[in-house]
Amino acid sequence: MSTQASSNPSIQRLGRIGVWSSELRYGDPGARAAAAAELDALGYGALWVPGGIGGPVLDDIRVLLDAAPRAAAATGIINIWKHEPAEIGAWWRELPAALKARTMLGLGVSHGPLVGADYGKPLATMTAYLDGLDAAGVPSEARCLAALAPKMLDLSRDRTAGTHPYLVPPEHTAVARERVGPNALVAPEQGVILETDPAKAREIGRQAIKVYLSLPNYLNNWRRLGYSEEDVTTFSDRMHDAVFAWGTPQKIAERVKAHFDAGADHVCLQVLRGATGADPSMPMPEWKALAEALI
Fold first, then answer.
1. For the chain, what percent of residues have pLDDT higher than 90?
2. How far apart are the C-alpha atoms of 34 and 129, rounded to whole Å?
3. Residue 277 above 60 pLDDT?
4. Which candidate, 189, 194, 192, places its Cα nearest to that of 268?
5. What pTM, to 2 d.p., does this model score?
6. CA atoms within 13 A of residue 245's CA, in its CB half-sphere
7. Class of domain 9-294
8. For the segment 234-262, what is each residue's pLDDT rounded down to a tens digit?
9. How far apart are CA 55 and CA 60, in angstroms?
10. What is d(CA 169, CA 165) in angstroms, rounded to the nearest whole number?
11. Which DSSP string do the residues of the chain spell out, in sequence order?
């Protein structure tokens, strides 16, 4: 299914290709601003940063908004257990109108093993949180959900701009598009590894995925897509190559096209480097190479 034109203004605010980057949140402040400006100049439509561990994520995306004159800044995601709706609303009300038009607040319900005993039913918890955002004046078109399962996808369609799923292959993009309909946002994150050696690429990917393999939301999503128990529990080569795109920029562009063909409006690329994943420097060479292939 190819992407169709939509009246959803949130789709226009993000553009087609974005960057998803922990470096843009946790790197040196000066380097973050400089990188945001350069990514904007390269033509990336949105700059996404993680927010799952909490902290001043709203201040961090303001840095990006101020540094990049055209690109949107987005959270991938705000952990709703770490931030109250009133906090989000107060920040939103202080944001200048021109910057509100370039902001996307991705929201996620996190995972039971991370939250602990307080973890409630995800759908009910997120519904109540969206009620709080409504009361705080945060508009639905400026927010999206990290929705994987069918009922959360329904909620993303009904109460937000749409969905920003993480660690998903194009098969999930097709499922999401079918579920949310033609007008809601579908903006998957795609992990990419600019390495042509299969063994090296898969080692990088497996190091990056380790922290997620204890989180049932991701594993259950892969099972729903038809991957075998062995694929899921061992993160097999098949599973790895479904979740992560690797190789030349042109090969990665083929994966991005597969997401668009499946119904994505926007794809944001997370560059994975090295076996440790601990390099805080900006992967600007990789971002430039991907821009040449995709923008």
1. 86
2. 34
3. no
4. 189
5. 0.94
6. 25
7. alpha beta
8. 999 999 999 999 999 999 999 999 999 99
9. 9
10. 10
11. --------HHHHHH-SEEEE-SHHHHS-HHHHHHHHHHHHHHT--EEEE--TT-SSHHHHHHHHHHH-SSSEEEEEEEETTTS-HHHHHHHHHHS-HHHHTTEEEEEE---HHHH-TT---HHHHHHHHHHHHHHHT--GGGEEE---SHHHHHHHHHHSSEE--SS--HHHHHHHHHHH-SSSEE--EEEEE----HHHHHHHHHHHHGGGTT-HHHHHHHHHTT--HHHHHHT-HHHHHHHEEESSHHHHHHHHHHHHHHT-S-EEEEE--TTT----S--HHHHHHHHHHH-
Distance CA(147)–CA(122), nearest Å, equals 10
- Mean pLDDT across 29-39: 96
Collect all residues with Cβ–Cβ distance below 8 Å to 211 and sequence separation of at least 6: none
User: pLDDT tens digits, residue range 197-225?
Assistant: 999 999 999 999 999 999 999 999 999 99
> What residue segments make up the domains of the chain, in order of their start?
9-294
